[in-house]
Amino acid sequence: MVTSMMRFSYGGHVTFPVRYGWLPKGLSRMHKDGAFHPNTEVGDDLGLGSKMVESLAFWLKATGLARDGDDGRSGRVASEIADLVTAHDPYCELPGTWWFLHLILATREGTVWSWFFNDHSDRIFDRAACAEAFLQFTRAKAMRPASEAMALKDVSCLLSAYAARPGVDLVDPDDVGACPFRELGLIVRHDLVRRFERTRAPVGLPVEAFLACSSLLAEETGRNALSLRELATLRSGPGRVFCAGLDAVDEMVGRASKAMWMKGVSVETLAGERYLRATVRPIERWLGDYYARVEKTS
Q1: CA–CA distance, 243 with 103 (Å, rounded to integer)
Q2: Which of 22, 43, 155, 232 has the fewest C-beta atoms under 10 angstroms from its C-beta?
Q3: What are the start-end ranges of the E strands in 70-128?
Q4: What's the angle, vertex CA 285, arms to CA 281 and CA 291, rounded to 5?
């Protein structure tokens, strides 16, 4: 939960959104060497410049695929999430993998990612207004507020990572600036008017990712049942994290109620309002459920 003063971190991405092929390279390197070291030698081996390999190290940690080594000097080491992705989707080709990575990124407190998806309420905005809103938020909430330049860099990286043209970009992986998060379609880029728009009905969101987010919210709030309105409006809930309006949340709860393979999930009606009950489990378990379902139906 957001407290009066928070510890914020800025930058790290070196202005680069995560690009196609980066995370598979990082996963492979971590499992080959036992850790990922963002140095020139590794960059040369992976075909990345010094700034890009530094950015890759950031994205491995930001998406939950890596953590710092125990001694603080041993580079990034693979997480349980990384082990699951490596075992089931080593090239990060499944859309569900990116939905889960987005969930982890958007619930990483003290970052521009968490702020935008949980605290920033504007649905239509321009880059400058968004950067100013983030700057003012850090001045009010952060122990170390962002500078104007850093606020703009962080917001610009976020928009470059997520914003797609209407209808969702058919992204060419050979495009050096392409980012897989654009395919989620959460932010629409209107080039003619230089505006951005947050969507209200995410397309392709796996029910397991929705339930994982609901489970995190249940754990955070201490509630074993959450109403549709709570799921749609509370920070760190699926409505905010996945840019889903009340109708979209209602649809996802309906899908969850029909997911007979999901144990510990139920939908109840109390006083005319529907509530979702989902067993509190770590994200890794929900991601494992997603991969099991995909592999069973393929």
Answers
A1: 11
A2: 43
A3: 76-78, 124-125
A4: 150
Side-chain half-sphere exposure of 244, counting CA atoms within 13 A: 30
Would you give the distance in Å from CA 280 to the centre of its chain?
A: 19
From 70, 45, 66, select the one nearest 57 (Cα to Cα): 66
Write the burial class of residue 287 (CB in 10 Å: 0-12 exposed, 13-18 middle, 19+ buried).
buried
Spell 70-98 as b/e; 16+ CB within 10 A means b: eeeeebbbbbbbbebbbebbeebebbbbb
* Exposed/middle/buried for residue 212 (C-beta within 10 Å: 0-12, 13-18, 19+): buried
- Say how far apart CA 3 and CA 15 lie, in whole Å: 28
pTM check: above 0.85: yes
Q: Rounded to whole angstroms, how far apart are CA atoms 107 and 125?
A: 22
Q: What is the per-residue DSSP string for 213-251?
A: HHHHHHHHHT-S-EEHHHHHHSTTSHHHHTT--HHHHHH
Residue type, 191: D
pLDDT digit string, tens, across residues 60-82: 999 999 998 776 566 899 999 99
How many Cα atoms sit within 13 Å of 171 on the Cβ side?
21
Chain segment 177-213, per-residue pLDDT in tens:
789 999 999 999 999 999 999 999 999 999 999 999 9
Take residue 275 and report the two structure tokens written for it: 């509530």
